[in-house]
Write a structure and sequence with these properties.
Low-confidence stretches: 1-7, 27-53, 65-81
Distance between the termini: 112 Å
Oligomer: single chain
Strand content: over 45%
Number of helices: 3
Number of strands: 10
């Protein structure tokens, strides 16, 4: 009498065990599939010939990353420009323009007096502290009255043209107000000119014409000290600066015993301008 009931219970237990085993197997298969899909290091066959890496996120969306070769190429291209978008070389170029006056010193004071100067230059900025400039300078000085009279003129001037190389060493490159050292040398052309007045121009006024002139070409050197004040930039990183400087200038002009010579020329040019 108990045997049929025992068989019925055994059959129900077997069916329940089979259902539990089937459910567990299904859940395990789903977990394995999900884990394989979200593996961030898994590559698809198409990735071997593509420039990007395809990843699948947890929500099933595809995410593309640039391949290392593409990133390296982009890095090489970006290195040619700075944060402002300007070419890197441009940021190393520097320019200046200024004007001022000159004071004579030394043994040539009987042959030259005060005047003015104009300077322009450009060069390369090696760092915020050190630059090298190629400068053109024009100096226009008057001649002393006694020297003009001895030369038989009514007026006169001394003109000096120069092309020189001048390194600039900034002592406090990060400060808004700084001091710098400069100096250099190069080619100098000096002409001494005596003028007389003649009559007349188109409007009937007397004009000055050159009655006598002599010149020489030689080398010279200069060195001095300057002050700068930064006038560009928003966060103190601008490169435009106002400068004021004074230099000692020595030109090896011929001695007075030689033709076209008045002895060495010594001046103190004082110049104000901007450098950027």
């Amino acid at each position: 009498m108990l045997f049929p009931r025992s068989m019925s219970l055994l059959r129900h237990a077997s069916l329940l065990s089979a259902a539990i085993a089937f459910s567990f197997g299904t859940a395990h298969a789903q977990f394995s599939t999900s884990t394989g899909t979200t593996n961030p290091t898994a590559f698809t066959p198409a990735e071997s010939s593509s420039n990007s890496l395809q990843l699948v996120s947890d929500n099933g969306e595809s995410v593309s990353l640039a391949a290392p070769s593409a990133l390296a190429a982009a890095g090489r291209g970006a290195g040619q420009y700075d944060a402002s978008g300007k070419p890197g070389l441009f940021n190393h170029l520097t320019f200046e323009a200024g004007a001022g006056f000159n004071a004579p010193v030394g043994n040539d004071t009987p042959y030259i007096t005060w005047g003015g100067n104009f300077t322009v230059g450009g060069g390369y900025r090696f760092s915020r502290r050190l630059s090298a400039l190629l400068e053109f300078q024009f100096i226009d000085d008057k001649l002393p009255g006694a020297f003009i009279a001895a030369g038989g003129g009514q007026g006169g001037n001394a003109h000096i043209f120069s092309i020189t190389g001048s390194p600039v060493f900034d002592l406090f490159p990060k400060a808004s107000n700084s001091v710098y050292l400069t100096g250099g040398g190069g080619y100098y052309h000096k002409s001494t000119n005596f003028t007389v007045q003649v009559c007349c121009d188109f409007f009937g006024y007397p004009v000055n014409v050159t009655s006598n002139s002599f010149s020489s070409d030689q080398g010279g050197v200069n060195f001095g000290l300057g002050y700068t004040h930064r006038i560009g930039g928003v966060y103190g990183d601008g490169t435009m600066k106002f400068f004021a400087e004074a230099r000692y200038l020595y030109i090896h002009t011929p001695p007075i015993t030689q033709t076209n010579g008045l002895g060495t020329t010594e001046l103190i040019p004082v110049t104000f301008g901007v450098r950027w």
